[in-house]
Amino acid sequence: MSMLYQAYQNHMDLTAPWRTGAAAALRYLNLVPRGASDRTFGRLAAALELISRSSLSYARPDYGIGSVTVGNRELEVTEEVAYATPFGSLLHFRKVDGPEQPRLLLVAPMSGHFATLLRGTVKTLLQDHDVYITDWHNPRDIPRSKGRFGLEDYTDHLIDFLGQLGPRAHMVAICQPSVSALAAAAIMSEDNHPARPASLTLMAGPIDTRIQPTKVNEFAKSKPIKWFEDNLINYVPMQCKGALRQVYPGFVQLTAFVSMNLERHIKQHIDLADHLAKGETAKAEVIKTFYDEYFAVMDLPAEFYIETVRDVFQEHLLPQGMLMHRGRPVNPAAIRRMGLMTVEGEKDDICSIGQTLAAQDLCTGVRTYRKVHHMQAGVGHYGVFSGKRWSNEIYPLLRDFVHVNS
């Protein structure tokens, strides 16, 4: 078990005064009237900005969704915690004086970032749906006394959250939790649960990673599971509420993400410094906003990470009919009287074409006319649920699918 996380936290604590000082100096510098020395001030401002931003945040950013347009009305949006456990909240984006719309649970991945990464997805869905999201808590802030959180616990949370929403709600899972979402739907269907979802949508999810394996899939299979336990699992630092909880640290996951597109991230920061030096604040703000979110990291509970790598990416238990939940087999064929939609991106280098579509073959109890599959041309992984093609091409299909099944 590595103590890398503790060493990292100690380093961040020691260098915090430098970042705080740079941020304070930057605030004062921005008060100075600009004139002949604009270029000098711009370069100094750029340097101070980069120093002040040279750390990660472990606090969840704000969703920042204050209003949404529904029809021709602008409605106020408020956030309400409808239900909570130590590990996650069922967060409701309530539209003040809004019309009655289909209730929808948006299932966010637990993959190193907060659920706020889906704020654009939420804002689009809010136009036509009553939206709830799985707002996962950072394990480094959860005391060890609250117990473990594994893959089965994730699935249990989805069943509990749907129970809170009540009958005829819809579930949309983004990426990694597609396996748990399918498992929850199967279990609830088999049990004839009154709150089983009316429809299930899986977007860019690893249902069967044996199909056209990506670099991410190949890495997961390149080492025995003990290697992941020995090399990637750390203890939460003593400075945190969750001290000594075992986790896969968010900064390690972020390092892996950054390394996949290292040249792009370096260029972005060079561009940021250049925009600041030239006083191009609007262009700089776009980059700063992206990295404020990207560098807000969340740890993963060790048991959830290890079980996901083993069961989903190494042993492929779900597509082989071998996935168990609390001692009982997960049977996707038990899903009936439920709409099923799968969405994939043509250029997805994390979850390739065919991996999510596999759910259609597993759900033999769903009538053909209630199944929908869409492959979006020209988008990568994140383009499946964010950006213009999501809003303009994918979302209208999802909206119509949900409303048909309401």
From TrEMBL:
Q: Which Pfam families match?
A: PHB_depo_C
Q: Which UniProt keywords apply?
A: Hydrolase
InterPro entries, per this entry? Answer: AB_hydrolase_fold, PHA/PHB_synthase, PHB_depo_C, PHB_depoly_PhaZ
- Where is the secretion signal located? none
Its transmembrane ranges are none
User: Is Methyltransferase one of the keywords?
Assistant: no
Report the residue ranges that make up the PHB de-polymerase C-terminal domain in this protein: 204-405
E.C. number, please? Answer: 3.1.1.75
Q: Cite a single GO MF annotation.
A: poly(3-hydroxybutyrate) depolymerase activity
Top EC category: hydrolase
The UniProt entry, under SUPFAM superfamilies, shows:
alpha/beta-Hydrolases
| Protein name as annotated | Poly(3-hydroxybutyrate) depolymerase
Q: What organism does the record attribute this protein to?
A: Bradyrhizobium elkanii
